[in-house]
């Protein structure tokens, strides 16, 4: 982003240590601004800045993530179609803050140890994807063929079942509930339990660079009707994922208000694939690296679950910092 745009286009310029609070769409989602800062915020977000004499900024971040705080925020939502949190209502959001600033920092350090490891794993996943993509392009240079997506994949859209937020809340569990662009909750039963490629069908369907919104998933999963569900047919599901995620889909998108890629259009997406004689070696390399990617992802899920279990106990004082530090050492 050029300096003029940075200084004039956006209303908010966050600083390192600020907390980004989403006010519209999914109100209450928070993120900690990293160092260095390389982004601005739009009108549906605010940057919260902690007073260091009163509260540790990372402690405040975790306090806003706590289940009790989330419930308070949800009870303050307005709007039916698109819920939002009014910026003028922050003074009504009452938080119980530990009076000792050093204890706040200690709690933040314990929880932050999990997030630090999650960040490292996430960067490893990004590098794996980057390396596979580069290797894919390298192999394409030797010899490639063009295939319609329907010729190399199977669609399993007929197995999808949408659930409302109320229905999901009535059947809590550990199975991820996937939509067009990610996990939107957890339920008690799986519709799928195999490696799959999800491609956004409506809503979030296309990235800024013209590529489709894609997900590679495995294990127990429930998928709603906002994502196409595919498996590899003449190529592995893993290779299918990397072939789709590099493709351009702007010409397939319909809908002025709600972008959509219907199944008929998606089936005719043309994929550039390595010629068969080069494909076996690439498949083997991709599968090896995807196995490593899955291990990092699964570790992140375990770390996130442990952090989320410790968070309310630490903030409420039910779990002492020294006891939590022992858990951190055992897990990390």
Keywords:
4-stranded antiparallel β-sheet; Adenine-n6-DNA-methyltransferase TaqI, Chain A, domain 2; 332 residues; alpha+beta
| CATH architecture classification of the largest domain | Alpha-Beta Complex
From the spread of the alpha carbons, the general shape counts as globular
**How many helices in DSSP terms?**
10
How many runs of DSSP E, i.e. beta strands?
13
Structural class: alpha+beta
**Mean pLDDT rating:** 91
Kindly report the name of the CATH homologous superfamily of the largest domain: DNA methylase specificity domains
Summarize the structure.
This protein has helices at residues 3-8, 57-65, 67-75, 101-142, 149-152, 165-169, 237-245, 263-267, 276-316, 321-331, and strands spanning 19-22, 30-32, 45-48, 144-148, 153-155, 175-178, 183-187, 192-193, 196-200, 214-217, 220-223, 227-232, 270-274. It has 332 residues and is of the alpha+beta class. It folds into 3 domains: 3-97, Adenine-n6-DNA-methyltransferase TaqI, Chain A, domain 2; 100-141 and 279-325 and 328-332; 144-274, DNA methylase specificity domains (Adenine-n6-DNA-methyltransferase TaqI, Chain A, domain 2), CATH 3.90.220.
């Amino acid at each position: 982003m050029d300096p003029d745009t940075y200084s004039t286009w956006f209303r908010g310029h966050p600083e390192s240590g600020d907390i980004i609070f989403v006010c519209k769409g999914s109100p209450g989602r928070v993120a900690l601004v990293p160092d260095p800062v390389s982004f601005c915020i739009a009108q549906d977000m605010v940057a919260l800045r902690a007073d260091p004499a009163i509260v540790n900024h990372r402690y405040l971040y975790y306090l806003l993530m706590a289940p009790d705080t989330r419930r308070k925020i949800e009870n303050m939502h307005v709007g039916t179609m698109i819920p939002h949190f009014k910026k003028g209502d922050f003074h009504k959001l009452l938080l119980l803050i530990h009076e000792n600033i050093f204890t706040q920092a200690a709690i933040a350090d314990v929880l932050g140890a999990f997030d630090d490891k999650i960040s490292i794993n996430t960067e490893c996943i990004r590098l794996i994807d980057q390396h596979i993509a580069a290797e894919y392009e390298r192999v394409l240079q030797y010899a490639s063929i063009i295939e319609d997506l329907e010729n190399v994949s199977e669609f399993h859209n007929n197995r999808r079942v949408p659930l409302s937020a109320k229905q999901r809340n009535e059947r809590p569990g550990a199975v991820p509930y996937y939509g067009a662009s990610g996990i939107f909750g957890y339920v008690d039963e799986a519709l799928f339990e195999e490696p799959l490629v999800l491609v956004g069908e409506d809503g979030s369907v296309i990235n800024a660079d013209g590529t489709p919104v894609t997900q590679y998933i495995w294990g127990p999963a429930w998928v709603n009707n906002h994502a196409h569900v595919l498996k590899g047919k003449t190529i592995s599901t893993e290779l299918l994922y990397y072939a789709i995620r590099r493709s351009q889909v702007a010409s397939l998108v319909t809908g002025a208000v709600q972008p959509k890629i219907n199944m008929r259009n998606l089936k005719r997406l043309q994929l550039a694939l390595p010629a068969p004689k080069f494909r076996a070696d690439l498949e083997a390399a991709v599968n090896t690296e995807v196995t490593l990617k899955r291990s990092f992802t699964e570790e992140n899920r375990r770390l996130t679950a442990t952090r989320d279990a410790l968070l309310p106990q630490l903030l409420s004082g039910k779990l002492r910092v020294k006891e939590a530090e022992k858990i951190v050492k055992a897990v990390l």
